[in-house]
Amino acid sequence: MSNVKNCQINLNGQTVSYSLKTSARARNLRITVKPGGTVAAVKPAFISDRAVEEFLAKKSGWLIGKIDLLKNKKSLAASGTRADFKRCAPLARALALRKIEKYKQIYKLDFNRVAIRNQSTRWGSCSCKGNLNFNYRIVLLPERLADYIVVHEMCHLRELNHSRNFWNLVAVAFPDYACARKELKNIVL
Prior knowledge:
Elements: E1 2-11, E2 14-23, E3 30-33, E4 39-43, H1 49-58, H2 60-71, H3 82-107, E5 114-117, E6 124-126, E7 132-135, H4 143-155, H5 164-173, H6 177-185
Parallel strand pairs: 2-4, 5-7
Antiparallel strand pairs: 1-2, 3-4, 6-7
Helix pairs in contact: 3-4, 4-5
């Protein structure tokens, strides 16, 4: 069972509208600010609406800053439609495979398969079975950031975590990984 309510809250003298969805599948409260500055909250049934308001009030500085940042920011692939995915997915696959081949020389890591997905929150992922998954929007990124994403996911083939060992492994091919991470955080999927 899930339902969605349109809500408003006054934060630091500013009225913020948000959608509030109660989901049987949710385990934690999740707040998302999307391009255009729209706010969405998803909560499990055991968290009250009042608790959500208290959380938003507690995080008001962060939330208003995020809304202001994203109010005029466009999404990387504005529509994210099925047509966009179908058009870009083959290009994204070719790009990912080319970069994997390049970095395979450095890391000597084997993978199972590569999949291109239409994800709204991730640039890539690596499964414990050795499958590498990439967001189709990787083809819209500057070359350097696409390289970073591929290196990041390839390193998960050896380290399925974000430990110091993982970051040391990333640094072998991408010493300025911290700059790339920061850049990616400023790009909205």
